[in-house]
From TrEMBL:
<feature type="transmembrane region" description="Helical">
    <location>
        <begin position="232"/>
        <end position="250"/>
    </location>
</feature>
<keyword id="KW-1133">Transmembrane helix</keyword>
<keyword id="KW-0813">Transport</keyword>
<keyword id="KW-0472">Membrane</keyword>
<dbReference type="InterPro" id="IPR052017">
    <property type="entry name" value="TSUP"/>
</dbReference>
<feature type="transmembrane region" description="Helical">
    <location>
        <begin position="54"/>
        <end position="71"/>
    </location>
</feature>
<dbReference type="Pfam" id="PF01925">
    <property type="entry name" value="TauE"/>
</dbReference>
<dbReference type="GO" id="GO:0005886">
    <property type="term" value="C:plasma membrane"/>
</dbReference>
<dbReference type="InterPro" id="IPR002781">
    <property type="entry name" value="TM_pro_TauE-like"/>
</dbReference>
<feature type="transmembrane region" description="Helical">
    <location>
        <begin position="109"/>
        <end position="128"/>
    </location>
</feature>
<comment type="similarity">
    <text>Belongs to the 4-toluene sulfonate uptake permease (TSUP) (TC 2.A.102) family.</text>
</comment>
<feature type="transmembrane region" description="Helical">
    <location>
        <begin position="178"/>
        <end position="196"/>
    </location>
</feature>
<feature type="transmembrane region" description="Helical">
    <location>
        <begin position="140"/>
        <end position="166"/>
    </location>
</feature>
<feature type="transmembrane region" description="Helical">
    <location>
        <begin position="83"/>
        <end position="103"/>
    </location>
</feature>
<keyword id="KW-0812">Transmembrane</keyword>
<keyword id="KW-1003">Cell membrane</keyword>
<feature type="transmembrane region" description="Helical">
    <location>
        <begin position="208"/>
        <end position="226"/>
    </location>
</feature>
Length: 251
């Protein structure tokens, strides 16, 4: 019992955890509003605070719970013919990405995560979008790249988000597609780090302590979807991504 209390104190009762909780609140607002944002924002922050091997499993755990919460309503609104093949390709490629997480140098991987988030943030803010066709073969390639990123960094979002946003669908359909995709890969993503022993007591304690913050903010962000204009959200999301990416790259 005393050992558990010691682990809990070391894992939660410190300034690093307060920063993690603040980032989690912002990520929850982003996820509830747009359907994405949890892993993209939290992976660089958690990797900086605790290192990629400790931080990425926490991202995967909280992402799994959030996806389960949002998934039921999104299933009927999403484009399942496009999203499901992308999700399956991501699941197949994910174990290869997990090998990178286990083998890569922690500092180098953290900086790579930060650089990826920064590049994604600038692309998301720019007017550029892919406007070509979306055949099954391209869906599978995008899914495979996303799976590699999910396994190695905890973030599957950047290629999928840019790809989904290239379509003519309305914002509600985009949001449902994101939620379905992250729900499809959520369970599979936690298996490799679980087998590798990365889901340890500190990871579980931090996840359990951060989840209430995330779930409350996701619900609040979902309400804001009907109130806040997309232009305002884009500025907020861009600022959060640049801050998180900068922390991981230069911290």
């Amino acid at each position: 019992m005393s050992e558990l209390l010691t682990v809990a104190a070391e894992s939660v009762l410190n300034p690093a955890f307060l920063l993690a909780a603040l980032a989690t609140a912002v990520a929850g607002l982003m996820r509830g509003y747009s359907g994405f944002g949890t892993a993209i924002l939290l992976a660089p922050v958690f990797s900086t605070l605790w290192g990629p091997r400790a931080g990425v499993p926490i991202v995967l755990l909280v992402e799994l719970v959030v996806s389960a919460q949002l998934l039921p309503r999104a299933i009927g609104e999403a484009d399942r013919r496009m999203v499901v093949p992308i999700g399956l390709a991501a699941i197949i490629a994910m174990p290869l990405g997990s090998l990178v997480l286990l083998a890569a140098d922690g500092v180098s991987l953290r900086r790579a995560i930060g650089a990826l988030v920064l590049v994604f943030g600038f692309i998301l803010l720019s007017p550029w979008r892919y406007h070509g066709a979306r055949p099954l073969s391209l869906n599978l390639v995008v899914g495979a790249i996303s799976g590699l990123l999910k396994g190695s960094t905890g973030m599957s979002g950047p290629p999928v988000i840019l790809y989904f946003l290239s379509g003519p669908e309305e914002a509600r359909r985009h949001r449902a597609n994101f939620i379905l995709f992250f729900g499809v890969i959520g369970i599979a993503s936690i298996i490799p780090p679980l087998l590798a022993g990365l889901v340890d007591a500190p990871a579980l304690l931090r996840s359990a302590a951060l989840l209430p913050v995330l779930l409350v903010c996701v619900r609040f962000g979902a309400r804001l979807f009907h109130v806040i204009p997309v232009a305002w959200y884009r500025r907020f999301a861009f600022g959060a991504l640049i801050a998180a990416g900068g922390i991981a790259l230069f911290g």
